[in-house]
Amino acid sequence: MYLILLEALGAGCILVLIVWWTMFSGRSDTEAQHQAALDQAAKDSAKDTTPPGRTDHKP
Q: What is the spatial distance between Cα 33 and Cα 16, in angstroms, rounded to a whole number?
């Protein structure tokens, strides 16, 4: 019985380790690039000079 509990505890620890590793591994650089891309997209959409009510967009 104790062997089963020890095995379950080991599996739980491995699961927690895997989740911890995937959550915090290499996240800061990617997150900064994603935020920069969102900021650039917001600036580009703010530059849209189409008058309100006009639906024909010329490329």
A: 28
